Amino acid sequence: MSLDTVFDDFIQRYTAAYAAANVPLLTEAHDDWQAPIYQRQTTATEAQGEDVVWQPVRQQQPLQFQDLANALEQPFHPDIATFYGRWYAADLNVSYDNHPLVLLQNHCHEDGERLQANLAGHVLMKRRLRQPMTLFIGLAEESDDLLITVDNETGQVGLEFVGQPQHEILAPSLAELMTIVQPRVVTNAA
């Protein structure tokens, strides 16, 4: 199955899990963004960091990585464009083999630009350390510096500590990872 199909199915399973648990999807609002996922608009007078209800929204103009890849003189694995360019969503809480993980997403176009800047920094760090290029897609809740990454050459999804190469493979591809992980319902976004 294609990553598009598997990811769409996961988003459906994710929202269904929250609905079945009667728990709203909450995320921290960024008052300088009018993110399409926010179910109500935030205003400049509201406090930064207020949680709002959100819903995933398909990106009408998918986030593009070609300019960043050209600037870094390194093509990106195509799964990265699908993963970050298919949906606007809050970060997704998942379980992998009973381990709590968070898959990163972007709320809106501005958040996508911030994400790309962080990816550029990650790629430059990997170059400086002379390590195989990876691109982060998430974090392990168990440790602040344990990243979920995609190997840019092979597409394998694995774990790596910041500044280190991948040390454990979770799935041979992002599509397979999305079929393995399970939505994890949390009662608060913080």
UniProtKB/TrEMBL annotation:
Gene3D superfamilies: Syd protein (3.40.1580.20). NCBIfam families: PRK04968.1 (NF003439). It comes from the Bacteria. CDD domains: Syd (cd16323). GO terms for cellular component: cytoplasmic side of plasma membrane. This is SecY interacting protein Syd. The keyword Membrane applies. InterPro entries: Syd (IPR009948), Syd_sf (IPR038228). Keywords: Cell inner membrane, Cell membrane, Membrane. It comes from Pseudidiomarina maritima. The keyword Membrane applies.
